[in-house]
Amino acid sequence: MSLFRSEQMEFYNLVIPRESAWDVMNTLGYFDSVHIIDHDATLPQINRPFSNYVKRCDDVLQKIEQIDDEMRNFKIEKKYCPDVIDLLKKRNGSHKQFEELEQDICKVADDLEHQQQTLTSLQEKKNTIRENLEVLRNAVAFQNEDSEEASLLGFQKMVGVILKEDELRFKRIIFRITKGNIHVEIMDIQEQFIQQDRKSVQKCVFMLFYPCGDLTQKKIQRVIESFSNNKFDIPTSSEQQAQRITMLENQLNEADQLLHLTITQINKRLQDLSEIKHNCSWIEEMRILVTKEKYLYMNLNMLNMTNSVFHGQIWLPQGQDQKIQQALRNLHGNDKQLPSGQIQEQQIQSTPPTYYKLNSFTYPFQEIVNTYGIPRYKEINPGLSTIITFPFLVGVMFGDVGHGLLLFVCGLYLTTEEAKKSIFSGLVPMRYMILLIGFFACYNGLIYNDFLSISLNLFGSCYNLVDDEYQIKEDCVYKFGIDPAWGSSTNQLTFMNSFKMKLAVIIGVTHMTFGIILKGFNTLNFNNYTDFFCEFIPQFLLLTCSFGYMDFLLFLKWCTKFEDTKDAPSVITTMIDMVLRPFDVPEKPLFESGEQQRFIQLILLTIIILCIPIMLITKPLIFNLNKKNHPYQQIPSQVPDDDANPEQLQNDMQKDQSQPHSKVCIQQHNQHDDIGELIVHQSIETIEFVLGSVSNTASYLRLWALSLAHSQLAEVFFSMTLASHIGEGGFFGTIGSIVQFPGFALATFGVLMCMDLMECFLHALRLQWVEFQSKFYKADGYLFKAYSFTNIKSNQQDD
Amino acid sequence: MDLCVFGVDDGYAEAIIRGLRASFLSEAQYQQMKNCASIPELKSFLEETDYQNCLQADNPQIPTSILRQRLKKKLADEFEYIEAQSTGTLTKYLFHLRCRFMIDNVVNMIEGLKNKIDIEILLSNIDPLGWFPEIKNIKVLEGDDYSSLYRDVLIDTPIGVYFMKFLEESIENLHENRTLNDIQNLFREMKPEYIRTSLKKMWLEDFYSFCESELMATSQEVLLELLKFEADFKTIQVIYNSIGNRDLNTAAKIITTRKQLCPTIGNLYPDCEKLYLQAMTLDTLREAVKGCDNYRDLLKDAPDPLKREEFNVQTKTLDDIMYDDECRRYALAFDGQGSYGVFYAYLKLKEQEIRNIIWLAEMISRKLAKNHPGWKKIIIPFSHLGK
């Protein structure tokens, strides 16, 4: 029953004293069944009582993210938590736990940051030493060559390091300042420098030679300063230079060692963090615990705090209240000092949420329905029938034993554990739907007797081929589906079209009638007898008397044996004549006598014509009469007034409590005060239904069209690739089929298994949403959102 | 015709801008900001808006200067992204837009160096929108030798052209037999503000002619209109600020300076030129511009510049009035489809938004009473549309 109609909901007041707020919320989180109503959805998060806690959680999460980034940088593996609830139960603490967590994580993060800083400063130091060393080496190398002469000529030189990318600009500016009176030597440093932001940059040593002159020197000095901050002085004697170089080299070594040490330290620390405790890495464990805290406070923020007591309103599915009350009573165990939270049942004030207990089998089908709209509370859920009708409709269009089997196998694979880890993991939630589609495609393929465009002779054909002509065997009926002999006959296409078309209409009318019957059940369930008599009955009659009768004629025609097929009356003509020439006796009756048929058709036509005004005017009339009888009674509004005075509301609630619980009845939305509006609405609905019954029936012809397209595509691919070679046989035929097979396989996979399946899926979706659900489905409910720790996901699932 | 082909090259960039349009703070959000009691509160409020990511790493007690820098960085990042997505004319156009910020940066640097402020501080304060690699080399500037600054550094930069023109013009204005000393004197006395105004004037004229010659008709229609108004506002501002200015003591000097600083485009030029150049009081200025649009109404509320000393926070200055009017015009630029106007308007309006936030942050950090008139001195982009 749980999927047919949504769960019975009960409305409770939740009262929690501030001291035990955390504990109560912690307890409730393990129940999967509390829907907390936000007391004021417009209130910004920042103005809520626990916003600073949420903020703190965010900060801690950010720190965790930083640590995580660092771990990724150091390529440290970590284990995600497989079972969140299990972990939370193991690590269940008190509200003080968060403070501990926060301290722990902050400490770790700070330590790490500290180490990072050490690392960067070391890096910096190393860079400076290296620059120095490079400059010195280059200077020495240059000096040895021909600088003796240069200095004799009165040239001065300047050395430094700049970024490689600045080279051109540097040269240009220097050139301009000295008016070209300078020699610039640039030497690249091979190894790259690692900057603070961990990007590596290329640098180069420059060496300037210019004639003496204070003015230019000052200027050049300024330019160099604007390009880099480090200054280098080069000792004059070669002895000192050598000394300096060895010293710098030593320093560089030291710095390198220190750097290495620090990196190892950081690495070790991070390794510690990824250590597995409670079945997953420490860092992941922390992430989940903090996320839980945040989630808890976010939900606590939905409650209204007055005088250190939290008031909130919650929805519970029926039967959960005992468990929760029990749990709340046991909350503090032996310690009776601390007050616990309480829940009190209340009169339902607003529309309850729609809640279904779903499992992995029903999930995808309910999802199809929910995508269109959430069912109204207690309305018949189309999701239940969808489980079979939807895959069946796809199967009708996708009908082929071979393709169906392939799909079925795919579905089977998806149900295995392995599929969850493969690249198809996205399809895993849909696995049962795929399985069912595969099954029904197979079933319909058997009916069409179509295996990759070839008919199968499973039970022995009832036709004998005599002199190129098929002759039917006496008293023989093919056991299941279409006789394979049709597959090779010349009028195969005409026959299959006629069959599939009729099938489509029969399925369509059945589907829609089913939808209307569901509407009838809905009206009965909500005690809405006006709708039952003024909408359901006429709608049902209209559809059955028109297209239902057509279906009947189809079956009748199938069951009748005609000596000459030319004598067989056309169902379409009969239907048209029934409306256009109702009083004429049909020329080719399907019934035993034309008179009889005319009589029946007249009755049906009368019913149809009578139904329309009933649908059109009775409902507004009844409302009008009701209104006149009770001129002062206002129609109660369904949605409670948001601006209502809370005190008054409470008084009302208390009053309501004293009264015996009346059965909740959700009335139809069509309670318009204005009679004119109602008439317009009703006439639109009526016109929509009458026209819809024609156009929707026609819409079901897509079942035929898509199935035709599928079989024709399959046939084309087969005949274009394999058929001729198989027909040829022998050695060349074998080689030919081997060569052509990849083409056949690819076309089958790409066009039929992917594209055509998608197309069939979409068309079935349309039939489900538009043709079927429009008959009864209101879809104006809202979903039950459980406050539950199961909503906390470990990161892995997000990836 | 424009609409048919606009999307080929620039559709994506325009779409991004229109998406970013949603990031403007609403009036309700401004109201909430005004209710913030402290800077940390303001910061956490901003973290719930589009500015979330650029503020997250900072500590709650963020100084306004850093706040401004962060907000501008965000705008610059967005702009850089759009620039990277643009091609052809749009790239050139967007680059022109950035030149304005480059001028500001260069002049700020010069000003800072003159006042002996450390270059690191100056570099950290530059507007990221107007960043270019040569900017740190402005340090080369020695004394007041702008010509060598131009020759050595700025010549390669996009704003080198304007700078050259500026130098040429200022030297030309000297008497016939000028000496090197005269030129140096001229530079020494030159105020950075003067450099800024004249550079911006040249930029505006250049940008105007760019729009006129290279853009498609729809963009032209929107942009030329906006630029005309901007030029007019510049003119009015120059005249207004020069009224009663002590540095300009003779009438002849006022007129030459004005002539140099007023853009030679816009609705006022050249019809009213003679009148406004001669205007020595607010009333005559009002009279001078009455022929155009609603300028007279704008000036009606402007306080008299001769009583400059009496101005305080409450005074709605000419700048405020003009920002208000500009905001309205830029918001309207979002109406049309297929024009480059939106990029310009977006930049201008975001600047206004940042100004607003910074203003409010200042107000909050000074803990001014809620009935202080300063709270009302923000101009909310797109708030005109509702009325």
Automatic annotation (TrEMBL), chain A:
<dbReference type="GO" id="GO:0046961">
    <property type="term" value="F:proton-transporting ATPase activity, rotational mechanism"/>
</dbReference>
<keyword id="KW-0375">Hydrogen ion transport</keyword>
<feature type="transmembrane region" description="Helical">
    <location>
        <begin position="426"/>
        <end position="448"/>
    </location>
</feature>
<dbReference type="InterPro" id="IPR002490">
    <property type="entry name" value="V-ATPase_116kDa_su"/>
</dbReference>
<feature type="transmembrane region" description="Helical">
    <location>
        <begin position="503"/>
        <end position="521"/>
    </location>
</feature>
<keyword id="KW-1133">Transmembrane helix</keyword>
<keyword id="KW-0812">Transmembrane</keyword>
<dbReference type="GO" id="GO:0016471">
    <property type="term" value="C:vacuolar proton-transporting V-type ATPase complex"/>
</dbReference>
<feature type="transmembrane region" description="Helical">
    <location>
        <begin position="390"/>
        <end position="414"/>
    </location>
</feature>
<feature type="transmembrane region" description="Helical">
    <location>
        <begin position="533"/>
        <end position="556"/>
    </location>
</feature>
<keyword id="KW-0472">Membrane</keyword>
<keyword id="KW-0175">Coiled coil</keyword>
<dbReference type="Pfam" id="PF01496">
    <property type="entry name" value="V_ATPase_I"/>
</dbReference>
<comment type="similarity">
    <text>Belongs to the V-ATPase 116 kDa subunit family.</text>
</comment>
<dbReference type="GO" id="GO:0033179">
    <property type="term" value="C:proton-transporting V-type ATPase, V0 domain"/>
</dbReference>
<comment type="function">
    <text>Essential component of the vacuolar proton pump (V-ATPase), a multimeric enzyme that catalyzes the translocation of protons across the membranes. Required for assembly and activity of the V-ATPase.</text>
</comment>
<keyword id="KW-0813">Transport</keyword>
<feature type="transmembrane region" description="Helical">
    <location>
        <begin position="599"/>
        <end position="618"/>
    </location>
</feature>
<feature type="coiled-coil region">
    <location>
        <begin position="112"/>
        <end position="139"/>
    </location>
</feature>
<dbReference type="GO" id="GO:0007035">
    <property type="term" value="P:vacuolar acidification"/>
</dbReference>
<feature type="region of interest" description="Disordered">
    <location>
        <begin position="634"/>
        <end position="657"/>
    </location>
</feature>
<dbReference type="InterPro" id="IPR026028">
    <property type="entry name" value="V-type_ATPase_116kDa_su_euka"/>
</dbReference>
TrEMBL record, chain B:
<dbReference type="InterPro" id="IPR016727">
    <property type="entry name" value="ATPase_V0-cplx_dsu"/>
</dbReference>
<protein>
    <recommendedName>
        <fullName>V-type proton ATPase subunit</fullName>
    </recommendedName>
</protein>
<dbReference type="InterPro" id="IPR002843">
    <property type="entry name" value="ATPase_V0-cplx_csu/dsu"/>
</dbReference>
<dbReference type="GO" id="GO:0033179">
    <property type="term" value="C:proton-transporting V-type ATPase, V0 domain"/>
</dbReference>
<dbReference type="Pfam" id="PF01992">
    <property type="entry name" value="vATP-synt_AC39"/>
</dbReference>
<dbReference type="GO" id="GO:0046961">
    <property type="term" value="F:proton-transporting ATPase activity, rotational mechanism"/>
</dbReference>
